[in-house]
Amino acid sequence: MAKIITITSGKGGVGKTTSTINLSAALNHFGKEVIIIDANLTTPNIGIHLGSPNVPIYLNHALIGKNEAKEALYLHKTGIKIVPSSLSLNHLRGVKPEKLIEVAKELGKFADFVIIDSAAGLGREAISAIKTADEIIIITQAEIAAITDALKTIKLAEKINKKVLGVIITRFRNNEAEMNLDDIRTMLDVKILGIVPEDNYVKKALNAREPVFNAFPKSDAARSYKKIVAKILGDSYVKRLEDEESILHKFLKRLKIKG
Length: 259
What we know:
Layout: E1 3-8, H1 16-29, E2 34-38, H2 46-49, H3 59-63, E3 74-75, E4 81-83, H4 100-107, E5 113-117, H5 124-132, E6 135-140, H6 144-159, E7 163-172, H7 181-188, E8 192-197, H8 200-207, H9 212-215, H10 220-233, H11 235-258
Parallel strand pairs: 1-5, 1-6, 2-4, 2-5, 6-7, 7-8
Antiparallel strand pairs: 3-4
Helix pairs in contact: 1-10, 4-5, 10-11
């Protein structure tokens, strides 16, 4: 049975969906079968980000019992499988977010990881996504409003006995306008899984409808997501990543010498 991880955020616009896609792409790189569920029912973006917004069957159909969950499963060219939600407001009628747990468990038969892209905030959709998870990852940025909302999400997860793996700080610029990392650690009191720097390649990948991990694998953002996933998977994957980077370093050094 797959591990179910919900990617959530207290605040919108912090890179939650981008992180969901790229963490999934990195898991796939390490040989894991991954399914992404777009549980952001009112404002879904997974299909848009991956170039497949219009399909015959959506998560919405599974949540009203019209179709089986596996019928809403689509294979992206990267190797990631996705369950998109509909952009149509008509498809929100009768949808029951509480049924997400049944859908996720059913899809878990076909993957190593089910990654849920939650709605932002602490509304009904987000709470259903958090309740469905085995573990939670919270996406935030290093500014006070986002950190405050991240803290609320952590407290909610703890209240319903859900394990918070940690937080990922995105679009990090390391300037005076952002909170100090030590202050963030103290305020949130959970592990910082990684820091993804501000990177223009993320926008370029979005325009290409691909994960930055696949479109620009040498970019700073792609490397950050890869390191985060290696850390989540454990020491053997960290060692594998270090070996990959060592081989790449030697290759680039050899090219430089030849040049």
